[in-house]
Amino acid sequence: MPNVLEWARPSDLYRDYCLWDYKPIAKTEGKLRQSSLLWQSFETLSASPALRQLVEALRTELGAFQTVWGVKKLAEGFAWELYIYDYARIDRLADIQRVLQTIAPWVPSTITLPTDRPYFMFSFDIDAQLGTRHLDQLSVYIGNPGSSVSSGICYQLTDRGLRMDNLYYFFDARSQWKDIVAKVACSAHIGLREIPLDAILWPELRDCGVIVVANKKHNDGVYFSRITIDQLIFFAQRLNYPEPIKSFLRQNRDRLDHLLYDVGIDYRMIEGTLQVTKSAYYGVV
């Protein structure tokens, strides 16, 4: 079984889930990379060895610290999502066809998109069915010029074409708090009189770097970017992640305290109660 522990090196890059660079917040000697959390999730959730092989192939092809991963907790179980960024847009190197060719031995796909479309990121799910079916859907993200805040639009891409899916708005957690609250309140899924603010914008995570508010088809979402290891431990505990994942975070807390993390929840009102329908934590490999 491959080792789940991957150690930091002096040449490592430190990036959040948007591939924006940051400086480590503690000494890095003798510390772990975020990839250790991904490998540990594969082991805990009994993922096929093919999942790690696919991720390693992408890292070899695109380079280290170029692929963002997410561990997603869903009502029906767990899945992983991989995110490929290239802010060069039409002059990009990490385009859809290059990535699909790289992962074809594990999950073939016939999806295409003209290279002149100015997307800056795309993503795809991998799960227990890897290797038993084709990859039939990608999420493709483009910018939203003219918005008063940084924002992005997500489209679902299949062989049938594109379909608009989600809208994302990025706010500085400290200087744009009023805008964050206003955006959360402007929801098609929750009435103004019933918004439980603290159940959405968790007080324990508000002092992060960036808060993202998302409007989606069936629910809304909020993401807390650049949180600490202690806040990640709190997140995993509150949402009842499997004990091996929570234990790994606690036991390796001092080996992971130099990094910043990103987490998110999807939520909606169900019979008068706000419920988290999906959650995830993210890192870079």
Question: What's the Cα radius of gyration?
Answer: 18 Å
Largest β sheet strand count, sense and barrel closure: 10 strands, antiparallel, barrel
Average predicted confidence as pLDDT: 95
| Content of β-strand | 25-35%
- The number of helical segments is 7
Q: Low-confidence stretches at least 5 residues in length (pLDDT < 50)?
A: none
The spatial strand order of the largest sheet comes to: 1-2-3-4-5-6-7-8-9-10
Encode the helix/strand succession as letters: HHEEHEEEEHHEEHHEE
Estimated structural class? alpha+beta
Helix content: 10-25%
Number of strands: 10
Outline the structure in words.
It contains seven helices and ten strands. By secondary structure, it is an alpha+beta fold. The chain has a domain at 35-143 and 227-284. Strands 1-2-3-4-5-6-7-8-9-10 form a ten-stranded antiparallel barrel, surrounded by four helices. Helix 1 packs antiparallel against helix 7. The longest helix is centred in the N-terminal third of the chain and has 14 residues, at 49-62. The protein is globular and about 50 Å long. The mean pLDDT is 95.
Compact overview of the structure:
The chain is α+β, with helices and mostly antiparallel strands. It is built from 7 helices and 10 strands.
